[in-house]
Amino acid sequence: MEVDFQPEDSSSFKESIELGDVKDMRLEAEAVVSDVLFAVSEMYVSHSLDSALDVAYINVETRESNRYCLELTEAGLRVVGYGFDQVNEDLSTPYHETVYSLLDTLSPGYRQAFGNALLQRLERLKQTGH
Fold first, then answer.
1. Domains in the chain: ranges and CATH
2. Residues 104-116 pLDDT 10s
């Protein structure tokens, strides 16, 4: 997956470079958002909740108008709240390896939009002979 990233300030960009193998979850969260934004109503990395190198929070509103706060860690993604910027420590929702898997369980509208985008892409490939 290739994502264009424009660092807001050079210190966070330098920090991500110096980490070597360690993933910066803030950058991962931005990549997750850009991957599936087309198939949800709204999605962005939380500005209110503190992200760190090992955790980031993503707010998502599905096409069914359901809002969730997602936690992204090395373990994967999971729902931690049922509203934007809400973290309920008592929730014990399962982790998903990918955002696609998580959204597939939460949103039939996502599933449909993703399927339609895939069909359109296959059609374009068919038309160009690839």
1. 10-128 (3.30.2280.10)
2. 999 999 988 988 8
